[in-house]
Amino acid sequence: MKRILVVDDDDNLRSVMVETLRSGDYEVADAESGERALQMLKQNEFNLIITDLMMPGIKGIDLISEAKKIAPDCGILLISAYGTIEKAVEAMKRGAFDFLTKPFSISQIESRVERFFEYKDLQDENKQLKRRLLDRKLESKLVGQCKSSKEIFKSIDIVAKSDATVFIRGESGTGKELIAEAIHDDSPRSDKPFLKINCAAVPDTLFESTLFGHEKGSFSGAYRTQKGIFEECDGGTLLLDEISEIPYNMQAKLLRVLQERRLNRLGSTTEIPIDVRIIATSNRDIDELIDRSKFRDDLFFRLNVFPINVPSLRERLEDIPLLVDHFLKIFKNKYGYAEKSLSSEAMDTLLNYHWPGNIRELENLLERAILYSADEKVITRQHLKFEVGGKQKKTNADDGAVMNLAEMERKLIYRALEETNNHRTKAAEILGITVRTLRNKLHQFEDEGNEGNQ
Description:
This protein has 18 helices and 16 strands. By secondary structure, the protein is an alpha/beta fold.
């Protein structure tokens, strides 16, 4: 039953309103002052508060603000004999649903209450619809049924409703950006901007200006004042992709902004407040970078409030059939094929591959397979082109010796670079991965001391 709290220092009027509303099948309680109303609100849940404006002690206009702190979703209807536009505007700004001027009839108070609950029902229905649409959106982007995938979905659901900073770790191509988008879409900031910046793609000399903006004349080429991405994203969510690539000298400045929620544009001493939710991602071993003094541990602790670790595709092989179905549906629609399926032999090939490019590599492979299979209804092993040029990748060392996956990956990458005379774009095509993934892998090998160790 819908619960209403009537607050008025006039005993007679309060009694009339209580009896009237009870006859309308509402559960009604009453309080003679704002102080008593706040006590009752802390002890019980109410859907609507009807309060007088002028009362001894806490006035109705102040009761609105205090009540909203205790019960943000509770509606408030303000009544007063001192009806002015100014008071009505102030009441609405503080969160009142409506404003009713004394004297009023029984039918007026009944209609205003009915209007509120109709509005509330519509609001709740919209929330449920938005939730269902969001669930469908997430299902269309995030696919998986293995234990680790379910844990990620649970983590998204937990953290999305908060403002906590999220740190997502995982190899390139595992879907870190999709997880960040899902967190934003399911958050109270979903109607605000979701912006992203690839830290690896920003030149060191432009980092501060890109993040925090600059004033006209602050450096050569600064012909006008420019907002940074933090200001552009105010109220929303900012994805700092590949945060491990941020220059070391910029890390302290970023930490200060995250701590103080204020920034200075380059060339200015004026502090600008910001309200931005941060999600950071990395495909590198941050702990190792911290040990080598390449990444500040205090910045990491500030970012790592809610960590999410995304497994590689080779660690969630049971999700491959689901992912295959998902991508085949997308590409069938894209290229106009009514029927496409994967042969069991082709599926076995996918399940036995080591996936250095993860889900992105699988997506690219299946799109190629759709094109190679043309009008054939079944995609066979012959349609799976792991490498431009048609040569099948070897899955062991040059001499056929068994090795671990990391060694195998390194061998394949260096072999591709050797065959293309160190042309990274061509090597990435041969490997079926992006140039960015290749670059990050080479960074990793360099950090591990394996540069050129073939």
